[in-house]
């Protein structure tokens, strides 16, 4: 949701935007994230997150991996 809105606003301002889906880049993969940042040097904004709040309590480590390390 945030990502789609941000892309629309930035492209509306004439910015070049690399909008990556999970299938393009899993943000828990350190090497892949580094490679993406090299390929599309910042300004980069991460809009991906573990957003299922109740589910995060049952899967704390996974949620932390995405929202912390990711
Ligand atoms: N929505 C709001 O009003 C709002 C307000 C303030 C802050 N925020 C924050 O903005 C962030 C995004 O929220 P949102 O509402 O935009 O959530 P969202 O619509 O659920 O989007 C989250 C995105 O993260 C992706 N994602 C999850 N794990 C990933 C991974 N390991 N690698 C790559 N992509 C991954 C999801 O991909 P899949 O679709 O493939 O699962 C999804 O596209 C969160 O930190 C949230 O707390 C949101």
Descriptive tags:
mainly alpha; flat; 4 helices; binds NADP nicotinamide-adenine-dinucleotide phosphate; single chain; 70 residues
In summary, what is this structure?
With 70 residues, the chain is mostly helical. It is built from four helices and no strands. It has one domain.
Explain what this protein looks like in three dimensions.
This protein has 70 residues and is mainly alpha-helical. The protein has one domain. The protein is 53% helix and 0% strand. The chain contains four helices and no strands. The longest helix is centred in the N-terminal third of the chain and has 11 residues.
Helix percentage range: 40-55%
Strand percentage lies at: under 5%
Low-confidence stretches: none
C-alpha Rg, in Å? Answer: 14 Å
Structural class by secondary-structure content:
mainly alpha
User: Span from first to last CA?
Assistant: 18 Å
**If you average the pLDDT, what whole number results?**
91
Write the layout of secondary structure elements.
Blueprint: H1 2-12, H2 30-39, H3 53-58, H4 60-69
The structure holds NADP nicotinamide-adenine-dinucleotide phosphate.
